[in-house]
Amino acid sequence: MSKLDKIKLFSMANSLTEHHLDKVEKDYDVNLGRSPKEEVQKKEYYLQFDSEFRKEANAMAEHYEVFYCLEKSIRKLISELMEEKYGENWWDEQVKEAIRNNVDSNIKRDEDSGFTIRSENKIDYTTFGELSQIVSGNWEAFEVLFKRGQRSFQRIMTNLNQLRGPIAHCSPLAEDEVVRLELTVKDWFRLME
Fold first, then answer.
1. What is the pTM for the complete model shown?
2. Under a CB-based contact definition with an 8 Å cutoff, are residues 165 and 158 in contact?
3. Cβ neighbourhood burial of 82 (10 Å; 0-12, 13-18, 19+)
4. For 106, what's the count of Cα atoms within 13 Å in the CB-facing half-sphere?
5. Residues 100, 91: contact at Cβ < 8 Å?
6. What is the pLDDT of residues 122-157, one digit of tens each?
């Protein structure tokens, strides 16, 4: 076998390996660290923003991602447990009128804006504080899951709501608050052990 054939064979084997590793990363949503993360192509205007703001945004992106996943999973969990306990009409029968009215107002505002509405699910229009009220007002649907009790649940939700503010309103988290966020997310999962 010539040197050129060996190089071609090596190159083909390498391409196949890269292809399989790409598939593993995609299928299992993991980064194997094989190549540096590609810089997302930014719009021309992005570079016009102050470099300090861009650095803060990059640092905050990780915290936003954590909170996004956490909040979405909390909403899903509440919906599932409420429907399991109270049936399909749980929203109308078990959620306080004030919360339902606020949600209806939020939906109406979305509809009137002309923008795409954010969700078909009413729970997606609640505030984080209202989510906590729904759970507290229907504790019997959650007490088996949250074994550490209602007081622990309330403390964790209050902490999460405090931490959510800077993340949702584009303010950087102080180092101590990053640690607090990590610990509070761990507390959330520990609440269900």
1. 0.76
2. no
3. buried
4. 16
5. yes
6. 999 999 999 999 999 999 999 999 989 999 999 999
